[in-house]
Amino acid sequence: QVQLVESGGGLVQAGGSLRLSCAASGGTFSSYSMGWFRQAPGKEREFVASISRNAGYAYYADSVKGRFTISRDNAKNTLYLQMNSLKSEDTAVYYCVTITYGVIGPNWGQGTQVTVSS
Q1: Helix (H) or strand (E) holding 35
Q2: pLDDT value at position 112?
Q3: CA angle, residues 99, 51, 83, in degrees to nearest 5
Q4: How does pLDDT run across 10-19, given as a tens digit for each residue?
Q5: What is the Cα–Cα distance from 29 to 25, expressed in whole angstroms?
Q6: Region for 77 from its dihedrals, namely left if φ exceeds 0, alpha if ψ lies in -120 to 50, beta otherwise
Q7: How far is it, in rounded angstroms, from Cα 118 to Cα 116?
Q8: Residue 111's closest CA among 52, 48, 17, 53?
Q9: Strands 18-25 and 33-39, sheet pairing
Q10: What confidence score (pLDDT) does residue 1 get?
Q11: CA separation for the pair 46, 64 (Å, rounded)
């Protein structure tokens, strides 16, 4: 079972940037595709981005395409999400998750809060 811990969230002004990290332990990080999801107050959790095991492929939600970049460092067992040109609608709790053969989960982090002030 992989344990995931997110960090890097915080309060930022619109137009600013943040980089989220997701540290993995207790499993073989490189054997999983990985993803970022987010959940805003009163809304369902939604897909943000995903990356393949060797970082050869990445996919993004239309709402973040061109602004966010997902990456990973398998040597450091860490997943990243670089978020630029942040908007108020990006405010949410961000979660990292393992993805196995297209199945999301079951390993989720506890989430990190991102708040974008306008």
Answers
A1: strand 33-39
A2: 98
A3: 120
A4: 999 999 999 9
A5: 8
A6: left
A7: 7
A8: 48
A9: unpaired
A10: 83
A11: 12
